[in-house]
Specification:
The protein is α/β, with parallel strands linked by helices. The protein contains 19 helices and 19 strands. Strand 1, helix 1 and strand 2 form a beta-alpha-beta unit.
């Protein structure tokens, strides 16, 4: 038996220049040669690696489609003397359909083209805009690079010492993945080219699915996803590669860098074959011969007053368990690497950020500093600006000063009082009239200062508004609603607090940690109304209700589409002993009114990284008409 039944395979996460086929193919060739030098028999690359997955509507361009075929020719020519199988992703037009495909290459030949079967068109994935399922194509052979090439998902590649098949990204996540049929027809290794995103908890799901797929199909499953360099707008790609074998994870790595990386692993084909021989149910695939019958029963369930199962009160916050640190690190990485990519893409060395001494701007500054560290840029390139106004308290101002000093960023202090007074004079507003005009003028003045400083230093304004504020519209339109990159926009307030505390405990020390601790102990407030005896008179949660409730409502309203009646029931169970039913109901009504009234702000919100399963970006998860009314939902609540 060759190599005692072991097959060495490689997965590559290449640096990708989105839309630049020449660059990408040269990097792919370099990695193929490197994998061959390490003894790999096959190497797999991410989905659409030749063009970049995040090309969006550029995928419809004939320039890009035809350029991809020229890229295949280049790879074939450069690797024709290497006995290694290379699996790369590209768009293919079959004459009637545009398909998301994998090309299997070996020593100057295209052995086959495999199309993606399941096309995702939900949340941040829009593939149905460009591609159709391979099942829609009637073509069985294509002319590629002057060769007649087999085309279809139903292809098994026989290498002598092992057989393999290919599926692409979403194919893995569905109830009946193509890999089931590939395995039943003899494939011992399944290669999956993917472009999956990094959101909190998803890496665990990927590992679980691959363990299950490799176990139930008694195969090896080699998965590789697009890397950090492809990340754009609201999406950070996972840069993740996983190898599962018979229910065990042999390799699980994440390449959080802007450099290409190859991972190698040996797969035991003998072990796979042994289990297939022993499990006599492996090939017991029986199609139903008759239609299903449905038995209808007339039952009357008893009314539930209280649930026995536990409803988490803080659904956005990881449980305090063994993987708490891992989950927090994951969020920390998503935020900091997303911002690092934006800074790198725009060649920005001077991010500009407003620092209030409050919770949101503290988290944003900590993430910005980490992004600078990732890019090996000096921290003093960060221009942090504190802008005291009519309601700024000594506590928050001093905390802002200390935070900037201890983190080593460049700091500026600019009072907005005189500018706002001049503005009040210009528009004929009485300074003693502390209404919404009085408050919003301050927020807009601060944003103007930040934008203009960004122009001065060639910088990028980093927004500090969080997901909860975006949901409630608790931001001034054209003021703190506006930035050039909203780094906190995927983080709800409850998670902001926990994440900031975690960073303080695990990443900071000394005086800066003490400052962060005091900021965490400071009541949440925009500090726009005049202070009394040095203390704020304006506490956000006294006005709109506790953020713990708002985040609970947001999660179940957006994530599952539950009715207000059900959300109220769940909240009563989750917050038993903390809030009364009437107080929960009152805050839920506030949430619904504000959520519906402020979609117009969300429709033009800045880019920002998606972190978890709930996002309000109009480019990703949440599309809602600005003029929708809340009446139906408020009636349901009553």
């Amino acid at each position: 038996m060759i190599n005692h039944g072991f097959v060495k395979v490689a997965s590559a996460i290449p640096v990708c220049s989105v839309g630049d086929v020449d660059f990408n193919c040269k990097e792919i060739v370099r990695l193929i040669k490197s994998a061959y030098a390490r003894g790999a028999q096959a190497i797999v690359f991410p989905e659409l690696c030749i063009t970049g997955y995040s090309c969006a509507d550029l995928l419809l361009s004939s320039t890009l489609i035809e350029g991809s075929l020229k890229g295949i020719s280049h790879i074939l020519n450069e690797t024709k003397d290497l006995d290694i199988i290379s699996i790369v992703g590209l768009p293919i037009f079959d004459g009637a359909h545009l398909l998301n495909c994998a090309a299997v290459l070996h020593m100057g030949k295209v052995l086959g083209i495999v199309p993606k079967t399941y096309i995702p068109n939900y949340s941040e994935f829009y593939e149905g805009r460009w591609f159709v399922s391979g099942e829609r194509s009637n073509v069985e052979e294509l002319s590629i690079c002057g060769q007649k090439v087999p085309f279809g998902a139903n292809i098994i590649f026989d290498c002598g010492n092992f057989k393999f098949a290919v599926e692409i990204c979403e194919d893995m996540w569905v109830a009946t993945p193509p890999s089931i049929f590939h395995s039943l027809n003899g494939a011992q290794i399944i290669f999956n080219l993917s472009a999956t995103n990094a959101v909190t908890g998803k890496s665990g799901y990927r590992n679980t699915i691959i363990k299950q797929r490799s176990y139930s199909s008694h195969c090896a499953y080699v998965f590789v996803s697009a890397g950090i360099s492809e990340s754009t707008t609201d999406t950070l790609y996972s840069a993740n590669t996983i190898v599962g074998e018979n229910g065990s994870i042999l390799l699980s790595e994440t390449n959080l860098s802007f450099e290409s990386k190859i991972y190698c692993c040996e797969i035991d084909i003998d072990r796979i074959n042994s289990d297939r021989r022993k499990r006599n149910t492996f090939d017991s695939f029986v199609k139903p011969q008759k239609p299903y019958r449905h038995i209808v029963m007339d039952t009357k369930p008893q009314k539930l007053e209280k649930l026995e199962r536990k409803i988490p009160a803080h659904p956005f916050v990881p449980k305090r368990s063994a993987n708490y640190d891992m989950r927090m690190q994951e969020v920390y990485n998503i935020l900091s690497f997303s911002l690092a990519k934006r800074l790198k893409h725009t060649n920005t060395k001077n991010p500009v950020i407003g620092i209030s001494g409050g919770l949101d701007s503290t988290l944003a500054l900590l993430i910005t500093v980490q992004a600078m560290d990732i890019l090996s840029l000096p921290r003093d390139g960060v221009v942090a600006v504190t802008m005291p106004g009519f309601g700024t308290t000594p506590r928050t101002l001093e905390n802002a000063r200390k935070l900037m000093e201890h983190l080593g960023v460049s700091s500026r202090e600019i009072s907005i009082v005189d500018a706002c007074r001049q503005h009040f004079k210009d528009i004929g507003h009485d300074e003693n009239k502390t209404d919404v005009t009085y408050e919003n003028a301050q927020a807009r003045e601060r944003t103007q200062i930040l934008m203009d400083i960004a122009n001065q230093v060639g910088g990028l304004v980093i927004g500090t508004g969080d997901l909860s504020e975006i949901a409630l519209g608790w931001s001034t339109y054209g003021g703190d609603h506006l930035s050039m990159y909203g780094v906190n926009s995927g983080v709800p307030k409850t998670l902001v607090r926990h994440l900031t505390a975690w960073i303080g405990e695990s990443k900071l020390q000394g005086e800066v940690q003490k400052v962060v601790d005091d900021i965490l102990a400071t009541p949440v407030s925009p500090e726009l109304l005049p202070a009394t005896d040095g203390k704020t008179t304006q506490k956000t949660e006294d006005i709109i209700g506790d953020y713990a409730l708002h985040d609970f409502f947001l999660y179940y309203f957006v994530r599952f589409g539950f009715s207000p009646e059900k959300i109220l029931f769940l909240a009563e169970n989750a917050f038993e002993g903390t809030y009364s039913k009437e107080s929960i109901k009152k805050v839920l009504a506030v949430f619904l009114r504000r959520f519906f009234a402020n979609q117009f702000k969300r429709n033009c919100m800045p880019d920002g990284p998606k972190v978890g399963s709930v996002s309000l970006s109009p480019r990703a998860d949440w599309r809602m008409p600005s003029d929708a009314v809340a009446d139906q939902w408020l009636c349901d609540l009553e």
